[in-house]
Amino acid sequence: MNAQAQQQHFTPPPLYRLADAIRRFFPAGSGITVSSLRNEARRGRLHIIKIANKDFVTAEAIQAMLERCTCHVPESPPASISENTSAASRNGQSLTEQGRSARTAAQLILQAHRKR
Q1: Domain-located, residue 96
Q2: What's the angle, vertex CA 110, arms to CA 104 and CA 114, rounded to 5?
Q3: Is residue 97 part of a domain?
Q4: HSE (CB half, 13 Å, CA atoms) of 21?
Q5: What is the full per-residue pLDDT of the chain (116 aa) written as tens digits?
Q6: CB atoms within 10 A of CB 57
Q7: Does 73 fall in a domain?
Q8: In degrees rounded to 5, what are phi and psi of residue 82?
Q9: Distances in Å between the alpha carbon of 18 and those of 29, 31, 88?
Q10: How many domains does the chain have?
Q11: Whole-model pTM over 0.70
Q12: Boundaries of domain holding 34
């Protein structure tokens, strides 16, 4: 197929001006602005197409940016440590005393290693 025939079969992906992309892909009140998207482009996380000094993005570029910007937050421990304790430990020694005992044991082990 020659170059002219290839051009006739080329269908560009839908392009969105930055403001239009925000309205289409981000919910109202999300805080994303045109400036936000330009900052992401400067950071290399959003591919912008510039035509006639106007900035455009594709849906695929927005999706790729969202994947690049995703933070994997580790699971946080429960708000209350009592959720992780058994009934036996709740009825006996307090968690503070157990923590002190563990710390004291660790300090004794460190002291023994330092004396070697």
Answers
A1: no
A2: 145
A3: no
A4: 26
A5: 566 666 678 888 999 999 999 999 998 888 999 999 999 999 999 999 999 999 999 999 999 999 998 887 777 776 666 555 555 555 555 555 555 666 776 777 666 666 65
A6: 26
A7: no
A8: -65, -20
A9: 16, 14, 60
A10: 1
A11: no
A12: 11-68
